[in-house]
Design goal:
heterodimer; A: 6-stranded mixed sheet; 4-stranded antiparallel sheet; B: alpha/beta; 11-stranded mixed sheet; 10-stranded mixed sheet; 24% helix; disordered N terminus
Chain lengths: 256, 488
């Protein structure tokens, strides 16, 4: 059984009659890294949001199975507890809420769901220091309020740091590379690579092939206008970079 | 806002009031109505000296004038409520017809149980360590703990009534010196009919060895509570005082019109904290609840003195109060830290007045308003710099947080500058607990309640940090309880 199976997924925006996803199929297993590429407005981030349980989207057709379970039946926090993690494209600021407090609540919520005991203060701080190192994040940052006053790069590294803390089974990275300079990109990618494992799957959403030079995917899917129009291995990303999205778009049009 | 979130927030907004029970204590209650005889009756029941009755009567005659003039009722605040019928209120209620208790042995068990249930044990073996408590039910002070221990240091902590009898010279000198009875409508009313409150006197150079606390409880139906509190800190002294308040659930509105006067002499510091949790009324219909119409003011009389107000306001149907500081001494400091949380049909119009008269005076105002349900929450503040107040400094920050989309937040800052050297800063923000913030928390495994608690606590953090340690935990818990609801 695959970790994630998306079948013929159709999604509209709540209250509006606009269909954004028009029949997406995707199967992802643990140990794999899948990249989803596509032009702006193709529905990549919508897919990420629907997987994470954002409520302003309405699934009109199709299904999503996570570990064989109907993911759409679960609330966002239940999905998180079961190991679905989304690294946000635009991480949200929580003024006055310290990273440490926030993370402790999050880590313990997830641990409780797994039937594990709460982490004591000492063990927790040890874990923070250890995991912060993975993305070269200063442990001091955890004393600050969540994402408040963080630079763009720090925000993105903070997302990967949280990924490392929460140890999800399915990690979705939504344009984690956007707004990063080359050094920050390398730091983030290094962190992700260290977190690749046999019992974890990654869905990496990106606009540019650049990120995939660092995080080398097993599979690449191209999304255009709400559909996966082409899938392949890492070479597909290279082809795309050379030929541009027009190429797959024309092909898709020809096939339709 | 999504369906489940709206439902949840409605749940939050309708969380029931925890202290809504009442105690069956036989009470000796004055007949309803306000007239000169009632004022005399109160004074007599409290065995007051002649001069105090004289002061009450002057205040009453002034108030009578106000009552006859319909325009004198303060209606300028951003509040909508039916004016209390002052003739339909009983102005004095003493448990079991006893206007004063000379020792704890005289206090009936039901009363002690009432306070124990509120988490305020008064019996000696159970008393809270490090905190001296004066417990006031309806019009009477029930007991004051640690009195003797404080006396060793020369600190006087007792009910106002007791102070008027035992230390008339101090009371007489200061009563009405900060809030004259002509100050405003409710101050005039309070001056005429005030019942019990607390009195604190800290002699020169003494640092009060423990937190002082008064716990106010309205119990009797159809009564108002009109407490009067006076705190005097002599030269170089320090005192930290906290008041807490609750009331039973009643269908009719109960009036609470207190006056609090603080006097800080040279180099003295008074820290006054409030955790106000009066019954807020029925969250769905808005029926009942306490009208909390209070005048609180302190004067930094001496140079380098400091007065600091910290308040956590979560209760009452209607709250109108502006704890203020008159910065008369040079280099004196005034501070106001406030969290006002309104939900259901609650309304609050609260803030402060900082009046700079001395040179190099400094004031800080940090106000956090949180609204949920259908509540309306307003900040109203005045910063006034007199013409001789060279180098006055003020910093004001007013932040509002909205939960849901049926509530309101408003900010009314007033600034009057009479000296060109003044520096006054004002910052204001309004934010909504965003779907984005909630979703971010959910995505990390946090449910609705946990997420909201985190966000609200984060918003209030710098204010809660100002509360005395003994009460910071209580305050945090109170906020958490306020936020609890049945997750739909």
């Amino acid at each position: 059984m695959a970790l994630l199976e998306v079948k013929n997924l159709h999604v509209s925006v709540e209250d509006e009659d606009i269909e954004i996803l028009k029949g997406v199929d995707l199967t992802l297993d643990t140990g794999e890294v899948h990249a989803i590429m596509g032009p702006n407005g193709s529905g990549k981030s919508t897919l990420a949001a629907v997987l994470a349980g954002r409520e302003e989207y309405v699934v009109t057709q199709g299904e999503i199975l996570y570990d064989g379970e109907d993911l759409l039946e679960l609330e966002a926090e239940e999905r998180a507890e079961k190991g679905v993690f989304l690294a946000f494209q635009y991480p949200v600021e929580l003024p006055g809420v310290s990273m440490t407090n926030f993370l402790r609540e999050a880590v313990n919520a997830v641990r409780e769901a797994r039937g594990e005991e709460e982490l004591g203060a000492g063990d927790f701080l040890k874990l923070v220091r250890e995991r912060a190192k993975l993305v070269d994040l200063s442990a001091d940052l955890t004393k600050r309020s969540v994402n408040e006053g963080f630079s763009g790069g720090e925000k993105k590294r903070n997302e990967i740091f949280q990924l490392a803390m929460l140890e999800p089974r399915l990690a979705i990275l939504d344009e984690t590379d956007s707004g990063l300079d080359i050094d920050a990109l390398r730091q983030v990618s290094d962190g992700v690579n260290k977190l690749r494992s046999d019992d974890r799957g990654f869905l990496v959403i990106t606009h540019y092939q650049r990120l995939l030079d660092y995080i080398v995917p097993d599979h690449v899917h191209v999304m255009v206008d709400g559909r996966v129009v082409r899938s392949g291995d890492k070479n597909l990303a290279v082809q795309l970079e050379e030929k541009g999205y027009e190429w797959v778009r024309e092909e898709a049009a020809a096939a339709a | 806002m999504s369906q489940s979130e709206t439902e949840y927030l409605e749940g939050v907004a309708s969380k029931e009031y925890e202290h809504g029970w009442h105690t069956d204590v036989e009470s000796g209650k004055a007949p309803k109505g306000l007239n000169e005889d009632i004022v005399r009756y109160i004074s007599q029941r409290k065995d007051e000296p002649e001069w105090l009755l004289g002061w009450r009567l002057k205040a009453f005659r002034y108030f009578k004038m106000l009552m006859e003039d319909e325009d004198s009722y303060p209606e300028w605040a951003h509040l909508k409520y039916v004016k209390p019928d002052l003739q339909d209120i009983s102005y004095f209620s003493a448990p079991k017809d006893k206007a004063q208790y000379d020792s704890l042995d005289e206090v009936p068990d039901e009363l002690l149980e009432t306070f124990e249930r509120l988490g305020i044990p008064l019996q000696e073996q159970k008393q809270l360590t490090g905190v001296a408590v004066d417990a006031v039910m309806d019009s009477v002070s029930v007991a004051t703990t640690f009195k003797e221990k404080l006396k060793e240091k020369g600190v006087l902590f007792m009910s106002f009534g007791e102070a008027a009898r035992q230390h008339p010279e101090i009371v007489r000198e200061h009563l009405g010196s900060v809030i004259p009875y002509t100050d405003n409508y409710f101050a005039a009313l309070n001056s005429a009919v005030f019942s019990d409150g607390s009195f604190v006197y800290v002699p020169e150079g003494v640092r009060c060895p423990m937190e002082l606390s008064t716990y106010f409880r309205i119990n009797e139906q159809g009564t108002g509570q009109f407490e009067r509190t006076l705190i005097v800190a002599e030269k170089g002294s320090y005192v930290s005082y906290l008041e807490g308040c609750t009331a039973p659930m009643r269908k009719e509105n109960q009036l609470h019109a207190a006056c609090v006067e603080l006097v800080a002499h040279e180099d003295a510091e008074i820290k006054y904290s409030t955790i106000q949790n009066w019954y807020p009324g029925n969250p769905e219909t808005g029926e009942g609840g306490v009208y909390n119409l209070v005048t609180k003011r302190g004067i930094c009389k001496g140079d380098r003195s400091k007065i600091s107000w910290t308040q956590l306001e979560t209760g009452s149907a209607v709250t109108q109060k502006y704890p203020s500081v008159i910065l008369k001494g040079d280099d004196s400091v005034g501070e106001f830290y406030s969290v006002a949380f309104t939900k259901g049909h609650q309304q609050a119009d609260t803030g402060t007045k900082m009046v700079h008269l001395g040179k190099n005076t400094k004031s800080t105002i940090i106000s956090k308003g949180i609204s949920a349900g259908k509540a309306q929450n307003s900040y109203r503040g005045l910063v006034k710099v007199g013409k001789n107040a060279e180098n006055a400094r003020n910093f004001s920050q007013c932040d509002s947080l909205l939960i849901g989309d049926q509530c309101g937040a408003h900010t009314f800052p007033y600034i009057e500058i009479g000296n060109p050297s003044a520096q006054v800063e004002h910052e204001a923000t309004t934010s909504k607990v965003g779907e984005d913030q909630m979703f971010y928390c959910h995505q990390r495994g946090l449910g609705e309640e946990e997420a909201l608690k985190l966000i609200v606590n984060g918003f209030c953090k710098e204010i809660l940090a100002e509360l005395p340690m003994e009460f910071a935990v209580e305050a945090k818990e109170l906020l958490a309880i306020e936020l609890e609801g049945s997750v739909g």
